[in-house]
Design goal:
Blueprint lengths: L1 H23 L3 H10 L4 H19 L6 E8 L3 E9 L2 H4 L2 H16 L4 H6 L8 H12 L4 E9 L3 E12 L2 E11 L5 H17 L11 H16 L5 H19 L5 E2 L2 E5 H8 L5 E9 L3
Antiparallel strand pairs: 1-2, 1-5, 2-3, 4-5, 5-8, 6-7
Helix pairs in contact: 1-2, 1-3, 2-3, 3-7, 5-7, 9-10
Length: 293
């Protein structure tokens, strides 16, 4: 009778370990120890593992996370992009990681890319995004971080998107969303929207036009040009002319409207816009997010 009783107790612990592993994703040894420390109480064991998970996660946060995926969610009126980083490409293709990012992407769209609100939002597992992220780090064993986010929503515009190097479904290594304002919903506009999103992916513009480039970026580029010309042996007057030419070239190359059109490099994007002859067609805004940039 004693032997049979002992066997029943052991089976009970094994079942609890199984349940705890399913619930938390933690390893057998960690679950077994947590159940012992919690005197068999599953809820307490979950809390113990969560505390351990936070400890494990914090150690991993000092490491670099340059891999990952960018996800797009939403529709043609409201579209969001979110970047989620990890340490290796192997984890970027892991089902647990992919499922987390997919759900996170939908929640990000609902929260209009408000990162603080997103972190507090409950996921389908009942935990907040923040807590779910910690649990995922503990389970996978890599640093995972939420990177850039952007939501584009304009009532009078249609959004077009492009994914480059697709990992799975709406997840890729590079994502672009561009917003076009027009009442014309012809095939010509739709084709232009798709091609423009591909152009942005390839040409990586900083802003729509030169006046919209961040002042800090302009100042930094000017510093680099000035430093470059310091030891050139040029007179101050010539150096100023060269500097002005280089800055104008920088602005032109990094402004979407003045970039050479990828499909026809002899023309600029603004030339293609004019050739379409659609009076109310405007590029409202765009976002381009690439893993590791």
């Amino acid at each position: 009778m004693k032997r049979r009783k002992r066997k029943l107790i052991n089976m009970s612990i094994v079942e609890k370990v199984k349940k705890l592993r399913v619930a938390t994703g933690a390893g057998f040894k960690d679950c077994n120890l947590a159940i012992k420390d919690a005197n068999g109480d599953l809820d307490k064991a979950v809390e113990i593992l969560r505390v351990k998970g936070i400890s494990k996660a914090s150690k991993k946060m000092s490491r670099e996370a340059k891999e990952g995926v960018v996800a797009i969610s939403g529709d043609a009126k409201k579209t969001s992009i979110i970047e989620v980083n990890c340490e290796t490409d192997f984890v970027a293709k892991n089902d647990d990681f992919i499922n987390f990012v997919k759900e996170l992407s939908e929640l990000n769209n609902k929260n209009n890319s408000n990162l603080e609100e997103l972190k507090k939002t409950k996921m389908t597992n009942g935990s907040s995004v923040d807590d779910s992220l910690v649990a995922l780090i503990a389970k996978i064993g890599e640093k995972i971080t939420i990177g850039q986010t952007k939501t584009i929503s304009n009532s009078s515009s249609i959004n077009y998107q492009y994914l480059h190097t697709v990992v799975k479904d709406n997840l890729a290594k590079l994502a672009v969303v561009v917003s076009l304002e027009t009442e014309d919903n012809s095939e010509t506009v739709q084709t232009f929207g798709k091609q423009l999103s591909m152009h942005i992916a390839a040409s990586n513009p900083i802003a729509l036009e030169s006046s919209m480039i961040d002042k800090k970026i302009i100042e930094k580029e000017q510093e680099l040009i000035t430093e470059e010309l310091k030891n050139s042996g040029k007179t101050e007057e010539i150096a100023k002319k060269i500097s002005l030419g280089k800055m104008n070239k920088f602005k032109e190359d990094n402004s979407l409207l003045t970039q050479p059109w990828v499909m026809e490099p002899k023309k600029k994007v603004q030339d293609i816009l004019k050739e379409l002859s659609i009076n109310d067609l405007k590029i409202r805004e765009f976002s381009r997010i690439k893993i590791g940039e």
